[in-house]
Amino acid sequence: MNIKKMITFGFEQTFTIENWWSEQGFVATSDTPLKREKMHEFAKCLAQILNGRYIESVDIYNHLQYEIFDNLDKISFYVTMDPGSIEVKTIPKYLDEIVSYITPLFKAAEMAQMVTYRNWWYGIKSGTEGGCHINMGGLSVESNPFIKDPSLLLKYLAFFHNNPCIHYPFMGPDVGPGGNCQRMDEQGEDGLKSILKFNELIEKINKKNLKVSHIDIEKYFLDTTLSKEKSSEPSIYKFKNPNYLVEDRAQESLRSPYEFYLVCNLRVKILEYLQKKNEIDYLIDFKNTLHEKYLSSNVLWSNFVDLIKLLDVLEYNDYYRFFERQFPFLTFGENVPKIIKIKEGKRPRVITDIKKRGDIVVSKTIDTSYKRFEIIIEEIDLNINLDFKLIINGNEINKENISCISIENQKKYIVIYDLKILDNEQILSINLVDHRNNNIEECFFHLRDMKFL
Predict the structure, then answer these.
(1) What does pTM read for this prediction?
(2) What are the beta bridge partners of residue 37?
(3) Pick from 187, 279, 287, 277: nearest CA to 234
(4) Which of 251, 249, 264, 248 is closest to 102 using CA atoms?
(5) Model confidence pLDDT, tens digit, residues 147-178
(6) What is the pLDDT of residue 285?
(7) Yes or no: domain 340-452 corresponds to CATH 2.60.40
(8) Where along the chain do its domains lie?
(9) Taking a C-beta distance cutoff of 8 angstroms, is the pair 168, 326 a contact?
């Protein structure tokens, strides 16, 4: 199969307003007066750029939406509302069409003063909180590669699961259980049952040469989280008549047409590589390392580089932008240290409350007192063996919450895991010393304000 000429990509991309915090309802609920106003403005700008028109309609949830038609009077985009943002749905496109197709979307967003990130007070731009998904399939049943070769779907599901480096660095802020794109091993007992059932099927295919069709796969996984849990990643929730779409939910809101190309090109390369594999891999059980080692930036990037070279992706350095956004350097405040570098880490969110309207989640309350940081110490003088002390308000951090992930290229990577910030514990001090306990550098970081003091 010529994957590149067969597979199509459809997107659900989210946008918000630059000063999102000034209108709490805009990001807290689906339907607000400002959201309706911005949706209309967005639709009008899109139609203008496309030399087309737009009409008002309703989506599958009976919410307001706008359908935008191009200059040939064909549907091009849908502007809808989402609990955390405004969502734009696209029509399926081939890889080579994506940049030219998406370019008007960003022009319209600029005209309507919409952005694809959230600004935070400490200088970081993060995901929008809305759902951003990539739907993969074909323009017809006959051209859908997952139907032409059903084993390719199983290979892809296993590949995505077994390589966290193509999941965590690209996803939005919803990490782990209760998130918008949970891996099977983040879904509790139901997820573990899904993994077991997946591996049982692969055992039969690899060792007994069992042949399966796309309909067999759809039926086999019908009672697993892969199919019935819409927030599963990857998800075959949409792998059913008439389109048989695979939905990759682990995707942050993209920030340029070229980024749309990058994430889709990566998937094309993965599928081309998997076509050549005879056997389907079993799902790996990562146990505790999944949210520890595999949620640290240097391990993910190192694994990604190895993987991307295997896949023969020439633009692999262009993907580093996603890692920088997921694990940003913190440089806000005064007295920013020179040797000690701090990155904001990722951690599974602690959800304290979920509000629904029927089966639809309209808002989640997150316990923001939990933090995770990555500390990078560069040994400038190779003859000095540097050590460190991490102290909060005079008390050394429990060693169970600290892991030195690796020492490479004269850099020491330290991760502080899941630190719960109490009201009376605000200041983190990092004291860098040599082997004689001489002070090399010291800094103070406010854990709530996220700035150096």
Answers:
(1) 0.93
(2) none
(3) 187
(4) 264
(5) 999 999 999 999 999 999 999 999 887 888 88
(6) 87
(7) yes
(8) 3-324, 340-452
(9) yes
